[in-house]
Amino acid sequence: MATRPLTELDKSDVLAGLFAVWDSLDALLDGLPESDWLLPSPLPGWDVKAVVSHIIGTESFLLGIGAPEADIDVSALEHVRNPIGVMNESWVIHLSGESGANLLARFREVTNKRRNALESMPADDWNAATTTPAGPDTYGRFMRIRVFDCWMHEQDIRAAVQRPASDEALGGLAAQLSLDEVSSSMGFVVGKLAKAPDGSRVLFELAGPLARNIRVSVNGRAQLVDDFGGQAPTATIHLDGLQFTRLAGGRPMSSARSQDVALGGDEELAAHIVKRLNFVI
Question: At what angle do helices 11-29 and 48-62 cross, to 10 degrees?
Fold first, then answer.
């Protein structure tokens, strides 16, 4: 079986996006009233404090710090579905007694350490193969996944505190890198999850600040393509770009943007793909 080619990404570009989303999270959380840290996020079982605790935990793991032991069977919780979820929840429980101000201080400390480690990482290590949430790929790809994860969680927090991202922010580098990451999984979504038949040509037309066209062609296997070789798409899905990322991440749509989804061509297949968009573990 052929192995997938490794994804080589520009280090300065990805790090600029990652640091930008950390800065945006810092600004969002700075001065947040203690009561707002307890607001429920769109993620089942998690408030704002839990979302930030998860980010702290993941970046701590990437610094080589092991997850704390929880005093309950974390795997038995309804919203915990896999070993990564167990690790995430262990950090959430461990930090649940912290104040918002203390959590923000922890977030700043761990992300500063990570900035230093990433900036000094040699190019060979950046492009080296490693284990990522998307399977074997480069460390650089893993860091683009970190941009996506942190950016998605920023939107979760914004939904909780009712401070949606501006159009300008949604057009920024972190958002674009996050959409790059989501786009890279659309072959998997169309082919494996939605099982689109051979010969399908699926066009995602994204509108708003995250506007772009994403094309997936199914020819033996489903894969991203730049164009359909002059042929028309067999199924078209038109929606706001932010809402596309929300559905791909298994989240409810944002109330701050249009929730309209227009289907074209084979509407039954298009609707089926929309239902199968969530690929995030």
Answer: 150
For the segment 77-98, what is each residue's pLDDT rounded down to a tens digit?
A: 444 454 554 566 777 888 888 9
Do 97 and 53 contact (CB within 8 A), yes or no?
no
Where do the structural domains in the chain lie, given as residue ranges? 11-163, 178-275
Please name the fold of domain 178-275: Nonspecific Lipid-transfer Protein; Chain A (3.30.1050)
Pairing state between β 201-207 and 235-240: parallel
Q: What does pTM read for this prediction? A: 0.91
Per the rule left: phi > 0, alpha: psi between -120 and 50, beta: everything else, 248 is: alpha
Cα separation values, 5 from 135, 190, 223, Å: 12, 20, 13
Letter for the amino acid at 128? A
Average pLDDT of the segment spanning 196-202:
97
Superfamily per CATH, domain 11-163: dinb family like domain (1.20.120.450)
DSSP 40: B
Instruction: Give the H/E segment covering residue 225.
Output: strand 221-225
Give the DSSP H/E element, type plus range, for residue 224.
strand 221-225
**SS3 of 120, please?**
coil
> Which residues, including other chains, have CB under 8 Å from residue 48's CB and lie 6 or more apart?
32, 36, 37, 38, 39, 41, 100, 157, 160, 161
Identify the pLDDT of residue 91: 78
For residue 207, pLDDT over 90 is answered with: yes
